[in-house]
Amino acid sequence: MRYDSVRLAGFSALEPKTRRGGFDGPFFLLVLLLLAMGVVMVLSASFPRAYYDPGGVTGGDAAYYFVRQFVFALLGLGAMLLASRLPMGFYRRYALPFLALTLVLLLLVPLVGVKANGSRRWLGVGSLTLQPSELAKLAVILSFSVLICRFRGRMRSFRWGVLPFAGLLGLIVGLLVLEPHFSASIIIIAIGGAMLFLGGLGLGWFASAIGAALGGLALLLTFFPYASERINTWRDPFSSASDEGYQIVQSLYSIGSGGLSGLGLGGSRQKFLYLPEEHNDFIFSVVCEELGFIGAALIICLFALLILRGYWIALHCRSRFSLLVCAGISTLLAIQVFLNVAVVTNLVPCTGISLPFFSYGGTALLIQLGEMGIILSASRDMITERKE
């Protein structure tokens, strides 16, 4: 049997005959399981805030956030199945136009975006809102995959391996800083660096990038005082437990209250208007309080299995583009899960990073499930050995 080698950052996948068949069952089932758990946790975490807001957007409907999340979960499943049916050639063909559209949307955010909590991060269309930064994460993965394939063999040079990618990252991050949205900037820089590593960029360039990142962090702390305030709060949140450190202190109380086995589903006390963003960025705190260490560890293990399965699919893809996209999306998922858990446990400074499939947010959930659909599409073309 004849094999072609597809190389990725030192790893290789052998490529015998391929056929487009069914998508990967274990990956699909893991997504369904995490999604179902996430929707249930949104119901549990959100009903106090929804119920005690009769004059607000919820109108006192305790199931308000749950119903919306459930509807978007169904729509997201449809988007995932549709994305899984589209061939990977479709994503390669439209990756750069999708990047251009995303840049236009990012440019519109500071001009006509919806303002909330002092930042403009959303575009509003009627009662729906779209966060273009979520699209930007996928756009970076798809466009970088296309360019890495196009510049194959020249990725170690400055002209082809650094300049175009640094320019794209700089443009996207610059637009995000205007919102401002530093957490999304960090994720996009991280995923961009991961894509370049997977694409075979020389390690020397990464050392230079780390130096530049440290310099950028120093400038950030100098020109954006609230960033340095977050660092100080992270170091000792209890020194300002009623002010800047309130959110993280309440999160730690919530996690500590759960103990080994938790207070039971629906039994959280901190969600009764003590813990801010309990159904959104800090939903993992409620998970720990209600399901305990055992339940939280189980969810983290499920995420780990999903991420590892994504990498397994990547290494069995028949094309370099598919391999890069699957590895990129899996890395993005890993980064977001790690940072969200690290924030709510105060391992890193507090910033707005949602937990995939769990945090409330309709359009973000749609995009996340669409990304899972892309991996499922690639899994249809995985290597299948045949007897000859």
Structural summary, described in words:
With 388 residues, the protein is mostly helical. It has one domain. The protein is built from 14 helices and five strands. The chain has helices spanning 25-51, 64-85, 88-93, 95-112, 132-150, 158-161, 163-177, 182-199, 203-223, 225-235, 246-258, 283-315, 320-344, 362-379, and strands spanning 4-8, 11-15, 114-116, 119-125, 128-130. The protein has a three-stranded antiparallel beta sheet, with helices on one face. The radius of gyration is 21 Å and the shape is globular.
Helical amount among residues, as a percent range? 55-70%
Could you give a short account of the major beta sheet?
Answer: 3 strands, antiparallel
Q: What is the percentage of strand-forming residues?
A: 5-15%
Strand order, sheet with most strands: 3-4-5
How many domains is the backbone divided into? 1
Q: What Rg do the Cα atoms give? A: 21 Å
Secondary-structure element order, as H and E?
A: EEHHHHEEEHHHHHHHHHH
Apparent shape: globular
Ranges with pLDDT <50 over ≥5 residues? 1-18
Number of helices: 14
Straight-line distance between termini: 8 Å
Provide the structure class.
Answer: mainly alpha
Tell me how many strands there are. 5
Mean pLDDT: 87
